[in-house]
Design brief:
By secondary structure, the protein is α/β, with parallel strands linked by helices. Helices cover about 35% and strands about 20% of the residues. It is built from 21 helices and 24 strands.
Length: about 550
Amino acid sequence: MSLTCHRRFVATVAALITSLADPVGLAHAAAAPRLAVVISIDQLRYDYLDRFGSVFSAGGFRRLREQGVDFRDCHYRHAFTKTAPGHAVILSGVHADVHGIVGNEWIDRRTWQSVNAVEDAAAPLVGAAPRTHRSPGGVLETKEGRSPRNFDTTTVGDELKLRHGVNARVVSIDNKDRAAILMGGRLADAVYWFDRGRFVTSTYYRAALPDWVERFNSEGRMERYFGQTWDRLLAPDLYEQLAGADAAEGEDPSFGLGRTFPRRIDGGKPEMGNDYLNAFPLTPFYSEMLAEFAKAAVQAEQLGRHPATDLLCLGFSQIDHTGHSFGPDSQEVMDALVRLDRIIADLLSFLDREVGAGDYIVVLTADHGVAPLPERVKAMHRDIDCGRLDHASITRAVEQALNAAWGAPAAPLYWVTRDATGYHFRPETLQAKNITAAQAGAVVRAALRLRPEIAAAYTREVFSTAAPLDQIGEMVRRSYNRERSPDVVYVLKPYWVDRLKYGANHGSPYNYDTHVPLIWYGKGLKPAAPAEAVGVDDLAPTLSGLLGLPSPPQAMGRCLF
């Protein structure tokens, strides 16, 4: 081969390699932002931004809203508004009927065991502290596996990697494993979440933690907060005005935090243990530590410094933990948001310095909202229908209806296995009674509709056709996956909470659970507050458009810009 031919061959191979890593070239990269940051704040109801806006700093939520595009009427379009299904929508643009993440966990009908949304025994944790369990043969070490293998679709990050390969980095970080994994997708370069005092990953993404993560973990940051005090950042009278009394009926006093400020963070014990591990996520220090880890990731992974746009997915989960325990109208939630606002302001200033003001974009959203404490609703007016769900009572009513129709099954057979707000029929019992799931479903649906706390119930059969349903039914359809969802599902009435004793919850198709922020800020975006109704499923196509990417192939939303 002549020298000229050799040079042509090398040039051809080099061009081919570049095209494989970046099929359409990097022409768009010059116009695109250097870094895209998708922030999900677990359980951030949209009304919080208005309600507490007067006490937010100029550089946090107000900066994003006033200088960005604030879609004020953004909702989830699915019914069962839980953490994993919400995070699965954010960067895929599809719902559980497609992506398959029907809940934070569900019953696997092959084994009749509960399965975590991101559970994967074939992908052990990397960097986690050893766990032990006692077996007949002695004490064995065990590690829980995590991956996106249950996630039946792809994300914007996956499209970014398919387009640009090594020229772009995708990093996803969250306090929770399911949120980090479902936002990061399958092709992320790195996915980290918090696990018993350490940031960890799994072998699905990498075989070992990088040195910078090991250094961060070795500093014992969570341990530093043991015994510290969490008190209100602002004057107490502001909390009385905007959030109400410090102690309220229905709040959860668990984990040694008590009912009122100030709160000592030690789990109620003199030494660090499981109670402290449970208490720590309820405090603002949980968000502080996550933000510090995110800043370390930006520097170590050199995000915003690659030829194509990098993507950072960042999820804060503390508001969810606090909201579950104390409810959305608590001083605890207000103070957590005031402090998170300052954390976000600091993070934006950090990005201004590290990436360059005007060279990045931020998208702020949430995975769901939350219902008020039913005790507070009842105190406001005794005639408002509200309460706490007793799952055992509903299951007894279901079994009694089936017994009345066909007689009680002979032991050891039984009729149903409950799965969140739904029931799977036991196939061996149906076979013994010589009835179909459709016949049993009709009986159970009728029994559920008689319950005072249930608004609607749907059987598997109604989702087998495209025949239109009522508004709630269509939202349930988007949450329903034929392979994983129960045979019968039900929806609670407004202001009913499926926590029996204390605290608040989410998971309904009502505004307090579906209405979340969707705010776009940064390069090329002019301030606006559109009144149009949009969905969280519009986020993925819109971000794809801003980054010059095709939408994830199954995305159902629309591009908003």
